[in-house]
Amino acid sequence: MLRIPLLLCFVFSVIFAFGQKRYSISGTVKDNTTGETLIGASVRIKEIPQGGTSTNSYGFYSVSAPDGDYTLLYSYLGYETVSRQVSIHKSQVIDIRITPNSSLKEVVISANKPNNDQISSPQMGLEKLNMAQINAVPVVFGEKDVLKTITLMPGVKSGGEGNTGFYVRGGASDQNLILLDEAPVYNASHLFGFFSTFNSDAIKDVSIYKGGMPAEYGGRLSSVLDIKMFDGNTEKFTVQGGLGLIASRLKVEGPIDNGKGSYMVSARRTYIDLFTKASKDSTVKGSSLYFYDVNAKANYHFDSNNAIFFSGYFGKDVIALKNTFGTNWGNTTGTVRFNHVFSPTLFSNTSLIYSNYNYVVQSFQTDNSFKATSKITDLNLKEDFQWSASDDHRVKFGFNVIHHNIEPGNISSDADNVNDINVQKRNGYEDAIYVSDEWKASSKLTILYGLRLSGFSLVGPGTIDTYNTAGEVTDTKTYSSGQTVKSYYYLEPRFSAGYQLNDENSIKVSYNRNTQNIHLLSNSTTSSPTDLYVMSSNNIKPEIADQVSTGYFKNFSDNKFEFSAEVYYKWLQNQIDYKDGAQLIANQDVESQLVYGSGRAYGLELFLKKKYGKFNGWVGYTLSKTEDKFAAINNGNYFPARQDRTHDVSVVGIYQYNKRWSFSSAFIYGTGNAVTYPTGKYSTGGLTTFSYSGRNGFREPATNRLDVGATLEGKEHKKYHSSWTFSIYNIYGSREPYSITFRDSKTVANTTEAVETSIFATPIPSVTWNFKF
Questions:
Q1: Cα–Cα distance between 503 and 120 in angstroms, integer?
Q2: May I ask the CATH class of domain 22-105?
Q3: Whether pTM exceeds 0.70
Q4: pLDDT tens across 500-528, in order?
Q5: Domain at 226-772, CATH from 3.20.20.70, 2.60.40.10, 2.40.170.20, 1.10.10.10
Q6: Burial 707-742 (b: 16+ CB within 10 A, else e)
């Protein structure tokens, strides 16, 4: 922890070095109708071309200029621009409210304002989505889904039907850091992946970083999905929700203490279990199949310089077949944040974050009952500072300390002849300090550079084994509580630069290094009881990824269209896989079942987006390759990773026909997953056993699907508003393989047949009634 005060001393010394005689204008930008802070709103000084900024995650901004008279311009996509004349002779606070543009007669699908942000920003690999965009995309069962929409972006690939997991630029699904109001979410799925944990009614802002990750993010190799919840309406009490075929949702929000604060509570529940209760099948009747989730948030502003925020998520899935088996899993998160404005140029946020994910599997059979559990719990302290040194330097710095506690898996049974299995808990500390600076080096060149120093320590209590490459124990030591077993420290440099050729064209380059100390072991493509989280240890080294990328970016037709082409190459070290035939669940010696190697991923991403107008949407294409290399697998040669797909295409269109009707569609095409199929077989005593040679040497069939949707807005009323959402998922009934298994043919002797299982092989219609009053 000595690294933290040393970094703070360095940063504050830099602050004094940058000091100059300028005055600051700071404040917050909010929606005039709801009081919601606006993330990424533009604040510009008209008389100084480079004198501008954007609001942070809390709507705070700070700009500076020499003594004089200026015009401040506040803008946000879909809102009226506000102009404010100011005389800057001293630092001052100006809070601004801007009004949604009621005359806007077009659908806006970009979270960015209609200017050249894509051209002027040095940030690469960043995609931002607003909720209007997410709500317009048709999805299965009509439930709007953040994660499903994310997978329609280039470089982001879906895990397949029945899976909310996603892969970013060749990384595995556990290499994505998913944050909900700063709290990590370890399993973001409901009902084995048919829905994500994120209720769109509660979500305000979604950003995904595929590369060039800023220094304030760490802990995962491939991406950061940063999701922010609504704060709540500070102006009036409102209720909204929706009734669908299999799920309903409700959100309430309103002011606290005459607008000094606000609250928001949003809940959702499926009711498939109500249909099972009405079933005539005695096995199905009484079974459970449902999920629920609750998002809650509240805030209070003591004054213009101090505010506190509370937010939480509570979700659970329950799936049980009467008197046979049951499984449930859930996430719980809680975040307490305190904002403080030290000065017009220095903003801080202090966060205390709790996250818990647990999994339970049970068998209710009398002669073979058991219960398997697994749990991971985090407690995280974060301190982040944002300092506007000048209009040319935006500095961020801070630290965080996380305590991880993992219960890998325990099995208990009521049977007399079965012994309980309790795998040792593991405790670890993950800490980091960082500093970054966005430097406008010239009118054309902007550089975003930073450094993150990360550390991890596995600590006692526990008895720790050391294994050789054959998985044999070579040493055993017992550690007391808090005693360090093994520590790792890494420097993670981050660098991005953008050079603006002109107002419509720019080129960018980036390099970043990331490390990861929480690893998911899984031998399936979907969430299952065999999923197991483990920490870095004396046997497991932190995973490391180095990524370089470059790209060309262009806006045209008065910034109505955006085009980008990015290429990347990623080196992966200390990758983890399991041995052939490994047993993962409730294994006391699970680290003996692992192998370690390297990987590489490279590709091209093309993206064309029409941001606003009556007809808009985007086309994304990814050409990529992802390979792993393990000495103990495939004879030490490179082989395709499970998430390797050569081609990935997505086309999304949204058309505003008139004030009441809008239509949308989404088409996807992707190369099939890399899989391992049997290459031979032999028979012993009439039992067929399949043999395999090589990992992931085959491909599943390519996937393609077309979804369509329509929204009918209700007639205008002063007190309430309603709408109907219609959609058809997989309109032409394409079969996407969920699994392919092999068995002896039941009709032709001595032959083997492949059996393909598809979840949605027919069109799935849905309808939802939405209301707000």
A1: 8
A2: mainly beta
A3: yes
A4: 999 899 999 999 999 999 998 865 544 45
A5: 2.40.170.20
A6: bbbbbeeeeeeeeeebbebbbbbbbeebbbbbbbee
